[in-house]
Amino acid sequence: MKQSLRGLLATALMAFLVTGCAMQSPSVVDRVPGEDPGQLLSQAEQQSPEQAAKTRLEAANILARQGDRDMAFETAGKIDEALLSESDRVRWALLFSELGRALNEPRAVLRAVQVLDDELPMQANQQERLAERQRWAREALDQPGAVSISLPQLDGQTIRRIVVALPESGPLSSVANAIASGMREHSEAKGDDVELSFLDASSYSLDELYDRAQQMNAQLIIGPLDKDQVTQLEQRDSVPLPTLALNYGSGQNNQAQRLLQYGLSAEDEARQAARRAWQDGHRQMSMMVPDNDWGRRVGEAFWNEWQSQGGEITNAVRYNPESSVSNAVQTALNVSGERARLSNIDALFLLALPEYARQVPPTMDYYYAPNLPIYATSHLHEGRLQARLDQDLNDVMFMDIPWQIPDAAVGGEEALPFASTYQQLRDESDASLFRLMAMGVDAYELAVRFSNLGELNGLNGSTGTLYLTGDGRIYRELPWAKFQNGVPSPILIPNQTTSDE
Fold it and tell me: H or E element: which one contains 317?
């Protein structure tokens, strides 16, 4: 039994209502049971060539989920993809190309994307993803050394002069202040010779900011923070100075030369949750997201990523965050009477803030679904230890930045990236602003590496492992944790998504 007060809370929740909207999904994919990869590889040695190829594919998927990319890449590379079924060939191509890109192996990516020439049945998102990886591999082979963008004006330079353009008034000023505080504290903790000069982005137009930065002899600019301004910049052919924007534009691609984009993207977290759930062997998901612009954006990111892998969304519920969870859970879990009907639901994706999220598992318990795996983003974690409140989140799996879950991420605070800055900011900062301060730390570290963009790929940052894409957008991979006794803890056992405590 889970050690929590869920039973009492679940009973109380039955008195409340919340509106949910269910949406249909286009396909059904059989669930693949999770097994030990070593055992699967041993089994493959005794199987027919066709069955062995499929078994090795499952082993490679599990190894990738465990984070053993090298072994996953080696295993996937030894598969004779011609022996796989058409659907499994697509799965293999998606996995092998993803691993090849992560490990900077463009020739492996080109081998994987050959499935594009075979006219295999696949979804549009899958085809687009493989085509994008094909472009990356071709560019990487044409330009040895990695990324397809460059900042030749900074080659060989030591970054000393940075202008930071953040708003000091308006709706983003508190966010900007936390980011700026992280930068300042980190610069002081490092004791280097970098000069940070701050401009009030709320007082100048974009062109005026660049003019002033150039007058200050800046080598690069950090900012803007406003999404609309980043969108304006990415639509230009180029920007006047090398720029690290602290948000992502709304376009499909970043077109501007010398513009890089970095932020704490909830959409990226949703995509990672989809990949994690798939690698854990789930194929049919329900999802709960808030009925607002944020929920729609993040929900769409999860939906598209999930379907691009071949998964099915059984139910998608848009809930009112101001209401209780009972009706939302009923819709998400196909409740009939007082019992969830889970024959076509493997797991639940949850996007919620802490107060709402804590009510979801007790309500699921009430409807006889205590062991349904829940995958969530960082937003349900307040970032401070409060075991009594968070025990109702026991067994919920979520991702967060390493600085928020040091034990699960790296085995303890002393092993964190930029540990001295972490200690200083953790002791002084409000937990609600801590992620933004960590973002400021990573923005600083990214900026001082602008003279060697190759250092940005795989950078272990305070907000995750950072990767630079071909169009200058930087994305994060986050570590996973699971609540146990109300405390974020490592996920120690592969494919174990529930536990009896």
Answer: strand 312-319
For the chain, state the CA radius of gyration.
Answer: 23
Are 13 and 324 a contacting pair, CB within 8 Å? yes
Q: Which two tokens stand for residue 53?
A: 């190829």
What's the Cα-to-Cα distance from 359 to each of 277, 336, 368, 389, rounded to whole Å?
22, 20, 15, 10
Cα gap 236→197, rounded to integer Å = 25
Residue 278 in contact with residue 91, Cβ under 8 Å? no
Tokens describing residue 132: 């994008």
User: pLDDT tens-digit profile of 68-110?
Assistant: 888 889 899 888 888 899 889 899 999 999 898 888 788 888 8
Tell whether pTM > 0.85. no
Q: Whole-angstrom Cα distance, residue 37 to residue 39?
A: 5
List, in sequence order, every residue forming a beta bridge with 489; answer none if it has no partner: 482
110 vs 476: CA distance, rounded Å: 24
CB 207 within 8 A of CB 186: no
Supply the DSSP symbol for 411: S
413, with CB counted inside 10 A (0-12, 13-18, 19+), is middle
| pLDDT per residue as tens digits for the range 320-340 | 999 889 999 999 999 998 999
Q: At what angle do helices 86-102 and 124-142 cross, to 10 degrees?
A: 40
| Secondary structure percentages of the chain, helix, strand, coil, to 5 | 45, 15, 40
Q: How far apart are CA 416 and CA 211, in angstroms?
A: 38
Residues in the chain: 501
Residue whose entry in the numeric block shows the structure tokens 């034990």? 407
Nearest to 216 by CA among 238, 195, 202, 236: 195
- Candidates 351, 329, 339, 372; CA nearest to 16 is 329
Neighbours of 416 (CB within 10 A): 20
**Largest pairwise CA distance in the chain:** 71
